[in-house]
Amino acid sequence: MKKLKLYLDTSAIGYLDEQSSLKEMNDMLTLWEQIKQGRYDVVVSQVTLGELSSNLNTDKVKVLFEFLSDISYVTVDVDTEVEKVAALIKTNGLLISNKCEADRLHIGCAVVHGCDVLVSFNFKHLVNVQTIKGVRAISNLCGYGNIDIMPAAMLIEKGDDPNDSSGSQGS
Fold it and tell me: For 17-42, what is each residue's pLDDT tens digit?
């Protein structure tokens, strides 16, 4: 089976060290272990790296970049094709605020670079029905194919999380 190609936005990487949200942090840490095992191909954009670097908490920035040094990933730039997809998102009524520029660019990078899933914890702007359906429609109409937007928990297979007690025991 083909490995899924994941695009990690800033929130996904940020949750690797988010003590105030232990469930989400543990989900992301479990996914990170799967990434380290080579189960997924990973794409990170210059948008993500720039947003991580601009965090005022320099200790957190250091920790997050240490996490990134533990995995293999492809870094992509924002080019005219990415900007075109980002503009289409806005002109189609999604993420129209100027404050959503980075979110539109995250989507553009994921779509243009053939990612299967954009991993995010940004429920306000990205991980919601309106954005997911709109991005799928734009991506398909433009010939890029399907893309999903979801949090880490939706990628984790049952039994992979040692803290998960919901799986059934052997018979």
Answer: 999 999 999 999 999 999 999 999 99
Is residue 161 situated within a structural domain?
Answer: no
What are the residues facing 76 on neighbouring strands? 45
Q: How far is CA 114 from the centre of its chain?
A: 13
CA distance 104 to 135: 10
pTM: 0.89
**pLDDT digit string, tens, across residues 101-111:** 999 999 999 99
Hey, which residues does 135 pair with through a beta bridge?
Answer: none
Task: Count CB neighbours of 145 within 10 A.
Answer: 12
How many independent structural domains does the chain possess? 1
Q: What is the mean pLDDT of the chain?
A: 91
User: What is residue 89's DSSP assignment?
Assistant: H
Residue 108 lies inside a defined structural domain of this protein: yes
Which domain covers residue 93, as residue numbers?
4-154
CATH label of the domain that carries residue 51: 3.40.50.1010
Residue type, 51: E
